[in-house]
Amino acid sequence: MVNPVTEHKGDFKNRSGLTVFSPWFKWLALLSKGRQISAEGRRNYSPGQGFFPDRARFLKDEKGMALILTILIISLIVTLTLQLNTSMRSNLHAAMNLRDGIMLACIARSGFDGALAVLYEDALAGNVDSLRETWAHLVSLSGRFGSLFDEGRFVVEIADHSGRIQINKLVDEAGKYDEDQKGLLTRFLNSPEFGLDPEEVEDIVDAIKDWIDPDSETTRFGAETTYYEALGTPYPCKNGPFEFVEELLLVRGITKEVFYGSGERPGISRYLSPYGDGMININTADPLVLGALSDRIDQDMVEDMIAYREDEDNELSDSDWYKKVPGMSEVSIPEALLTTSSTYFEIISEGYKGAMTKRIRGVVEREEKALEIVCWKVE
Fold first, then answer.
1. SS3 content of the chain, % helix, strand, coil (to 5)
2. At residue 371, does pLDDT exceed 80?
3. What is the pTM of this model?
4. C-alpha closest to that of 316 among 128, 100, 44
5. Which of 131, 290, 331, 379 could make a disulfide contact with 359, Cβ separation 3.0–4.6 Å?
């Protein structure tokens, strides 16, 4: 008996008169023979075209592409997540640093304000200032204030600028040398600790005078605008008083080594000040300044002067007390150079929190019981 499904070739019409294409019979023939067509095979079959094995392989390749795309997307997500994490950490650390910086500034300011209070209390006690007083020992006393803060601490120091050489008084109102101040500065710069030749000292003193005086005439070995404008980086001579001691670095002959010191040699900056009326507090002056008060004062006398003023049994209210020091009865220091009271003080307050620090530095003028901040700097 002939099987119409397997034997039929070509097209035929069904009971409704519609034409049925032979490829459908091919498919049925395969089923009738017991062969199974996979789901993928059926998807790759198209009436009139048969099966497409290349398309099946292509779909297999698409599975590989999907895996690669998945890996790429996951990698992108991981990268973006890590970048976001890094950015968030950076912002967090920046916020913490900002917080700690503000906290340190407040701690340092607390120390500064505390120093102002100490100076005010000292003014109420009298007008004689010496290194025996509380303000001169605030560094060692700062540890007592640590309990004021849950985190952090401050260390505060007060330096007396009235115990330094006040360089603006080198020149008088007429623009001429003040001879007492000139002698003081010259003896100071000739101190063996600085290692300067006498000729260098003369040049520096003349250059400082030219920087301060109002005229444009060069003083002996000094320097005026014509010299400074011929430098690689030109600038004019100020012809006015120093506002900050660092201005000395602009003056001819004063190098960084001279100003800041080098090796075992000290710098001149810590002994000079642009503030004051020219009178030096003999009770607070540094040994190098004491030795420069007169050309008759030697190193032994300086040590005896320091020992005398450290003895609390000795009275320091009179600036002539130095004459009571053994061997100094014949020494004479110009009265215009000496005082026992101080007007200008420098306050240095440092706040600490872990490894972070912040410093506030300011100069204060004290007139009787009034305090005024002359300059202020946050470092």
1. 50, 15, 35
2. yes
3. 0.75
4. 128
5. 379
